[in-house]
Amino acid sequence: MIAKLLALLPVGWLACASLAAEPWLKIDSGPGQAGELTWETLVLNYRLPALEQPGRWTMLVKGLSLDPVGALGRLEIVCEQGYLRPAVPTCRDGRLVWEDGPLERRLEGELSLLGIDDEGAELVVDLSFARLTANLSSDGSMAGASLELSGFDPALLSALLPPESGISQFGGALDGGVEWTDERITGNIRLRGGVFDSADGSHAGDGLSVGIDFQLEQIESGLSFVVTLSQFEGELLIGPAYLPPPAAPFRVHARGQWVENQALVLDLLEVSEQQAFELAGRVSIDLREDKALLESAEIERLDLSLANWWPRWADSLAAVAGFPGLTPEGRLGGRLRWKQGEFELVDIELVGLELVDPQQRIGIVGGRGQLVWIDDGPGIDLSWQAAELVGLPLGESSFRLRSQADILLLAAPVRVPMLDGSIDIERFAWRDWKGRSPDILLDARIRPLDLRQLTLLMGWPELGGTLAGSFPGLRFSDGQLSFDGGIDIEAFSGRITVSDLVIERLFGTLPALAAQIELERLDLLELTGAFNFGRMEGLLSGNLHGLRLLDWRPVAMNARLHTLDDSPRRRISQRAVDNLSSLGGAGGALLSGTLLRVFDDFPYRRAGLACHLRNNICHIDGVAPHESGGFYIVEGRGLPRLDVVGHRRLVDWPQLMRQLENITAQAVAD
Predict the structure, then answer these.
(1) Which of 4, 18, 183, 517 could form a disulfide with 218 if both were Cys (CB 3.0 to 4.6 A apart)?
(2) CA-to-CA distance for 324 and 362, rounded, in angstroms?
(3) Do 450 and 555 have their domain in common?
(4) Cβ neighbours of 200 (radius 10 Å)
């Protein structure tokens, strides 16, 4: 740049200047331009040499700017001995100072510009962290150059970063060198202690040790290149993905050609991280019409170890999706070919899959999978020897999926053993599987499962009976899992029906559930015994309408539970009376304490509770109004007659749940 600026000055006429002793000449060019380089002011002072002796010259350039980089600041050169020749000037004992005022950056160094022969000169710029050597031709153009770096701070180049990069901090130390001879450029650069950050904090790096080796060569059609990029140390944040330091060097090696405004072709692309994965293939990108479009891609070889690859490349993304701490094992390998928007070949195989979830939501033992391309769509085979879903053990199963137009279908019905029953999947259809939003339809059936085993595994109160269900139209769309059918639970010698079931963010943060629940003729003796609530005999029906759970805790519902008049035996124990009084906000049972101690249980006519839950407040009601203004929770009959009457209409829901938990816990302790 220095030589180019000087070569532009009209100094040829200096030979005709006055021969007076040590005359001075000052030239002020004002605004000027040299290609993409512009300046606001250029001032040259020259002490004319006497008797062919070298003179002293200085140059000051203000308002330097380079398109598209932008402002470059101020440049000053002081040369103690030299000649200002029309094309290539000379300089001995030169000093160079560059300042970028707004960013308070400053560079100082030594400058040497000496003629080699009548055809050119050698330019040497010596800085504390860099040395630039360039050979200049007689017209001031560069014929060859080399650059040596030692501890160069890349923050000085931040002005070269495009604004759209969003990088607000960039630093470290660069070592290495670059050489340019004829039509070839070769170099090797190493970054130590690299750090960068974006203004919004979405992209960052720290402690980076990165190297790049390259060779660029001008060819008739454009530029050929060989580039190797390596990361040895450091951590990265790229959007939601956090990449910890690599256990072994991560490398990207590419060889190809760039044809200006037409194409970028990578004849060879190799990506690897020792013991984690290896990938080799080729890529072609169309650069016409001011767009970068992937024209073709081929993976000739893929070999990936899940145990070594997952912790660095996928663990953080899985955590964001709600699956932190997954531990997978197995190997993935195969080939792939894609061209002009369509797959031509896919043959990917997964073997030896083992998956452990610390939260026991999902697990696989002896998993195996294969993805192939059949005609115009995928074929997927998946099997396992054993699996686990939300704590439930699944037996050996296999799935075969095949594409049909834009729908991915289950090739044959599947039975997944669970406990003493099974889940039968009769139909699976993934519509528009090429789109970004999954739209999945499923017909499934739950063959009767033993509720006792199920509740024990789930850590719930032990229940008797069976669980069965039919899902003729289960659908997953827009992040929601909805059930057109219902779940029938045969429990407590009665039936529980769940309908209009919708689940959002099933495995994510704050999962939500909405449903309607009907209870028909549940045996109260079995029910109260299962929850250690105290003994109560009779039949119970009711419903929970508008039920909504957030993070599996009720936040809204309109519930009503009541006993049936046709129950053959209706009695309630003293302990159940106390617990109902506590939960229902009753002031106490309407019977003397002496009589309560005499009898173990009492006959009743009817009993029930209602709760309208909103905003953590339960609006409570009973089975009938009481003359005191309260409501019957238990209406007695016969002798001794016992009534449980509630008076508090509004109850704090979290406190009510704590009471219920304490009642159950105390019963277990007793």
Answers:
(1) 183
(2) 12
(3) no
(4) 8
In the block, residue with structure tokens 């101020």:
74
Q: Nearest-5° angle of CA 392, CA 396, CA 397?
A: 100
Residue 489: Cβ-neighbour burial (10 angstroms; 0-12, 13-18, 19+): buried
Q: Is residue 565 part of a domain?
A: yes
Are residues 582 and 608 both part of a single domain? Answer: yes
Cα–Cα separations (whole angstroms), residue 185 to 150, 178, 188: 19, 7, 11
Number of residues written out for the chain: 670
DSSP 366-428: EEEEEEEEETTEEEEEEEESEEEETTEEE--EEEEEEEETTEEEESS-EEEEETTEEEEEEEE
**Would 573 be classed as within a structural domain?**
yes
Prior bond of 68 cis (ω within 30°): yes
Tokens of 232: 């040895």
Contact 533, 504 (CB under 8 A): no
Phi, psi of 667 (to 5 degrees): -65, -40
- Determine, yes or no, domain membership for 170: no
- Overall average pLDDT of the 578-592 stretch: 59
Q: Are 632 and 643 in contact (CB under 8 A)?
A: yes
Q: Is residue 127 part of a domain?
A: yes
Single residue among 459, 487, 515 that ends a domain in this structure? 487
- Encode 604-618: b = buried (16+ Cβ within 10 Å), e = exposed: bbbbbbbbbbeeeeb
79 & 112 share domain: yes
From 468, 487, 506, the end of a domain falls on 487
Q: Does 478 share its domain with 513?
A: no
Q: How confident is the model at residue 357 (pLDDT cuts 50, 70, 90)?
A: very high
Cβ atoms of 451 and 434 closer than 8 Å? no
Q: Which of 264, 246, 244 is nearest to 254 (CA)?
A: 264
Q: Are the C-beta atoms of 572 and 549 separated by less than 8 Å?
A: no
Question: Which amino acid, 338?
Answer: W
**Number of neighbours of residue 289 by Cβ within 10 angstroms:** 8
Distance, in Å, from the CA atom of 69 to the CA atom of 632, rounded to the nearest integer, reads: 82
Contact assessment for residue 349 and residue 336, using Cβ atoms and an 8 Å cutoff = no
- Long-range contacts: 126-130, Cβ < 8 Å, 24+? 129/153
Residue 87 has pLDDT above 90, yes or no: no
Q: Are residues 10 and 114 in the same domain?
A: yes
Amino acid at 219: I
Within the chain, what is the greatest distance between any pair of CA atoms? 138
Burial tier of 661 (Cβ tally within 10 Å: 0-12, 13-18, 19+): exposed
Q: What is the pTM of this model?
A: 0.71
Range of the domain at 111: 1-150
Q: So what's the pLDDT on residue 6?
A: 46
Q: Which amino acid is at 166?
A: G
For the chain, what is the domain count? 3
Instruction: Find the mean pLDDT for residues 366-387.
Output: 90
pLDDT band at residue 118 using 50, 70 and 90 as cut-offs: low
Rounded Cα distance between 649 and 652, Å, is: 10
567 shares a domain with 499: yes
Burial code (b: 16+ CB inside 10 Å, e: under 16) for 202-215 equals: ebbbeebbbbebbe
Q: What percent of the chain has pLDDT over 70?
A: 86
Helix (H, G, I), strand (E, B) or coil at 610: strand
Dihedral angle over CA of 323, 326, 329, 330, nearest 10: 10
- What pLDDT score was predicted for residue 664? 64
Contact present, 299 and 259 (Cβ < 8 Å): no
If one compares 329 and 660, the residue with the highest pLDDT of the two is 329
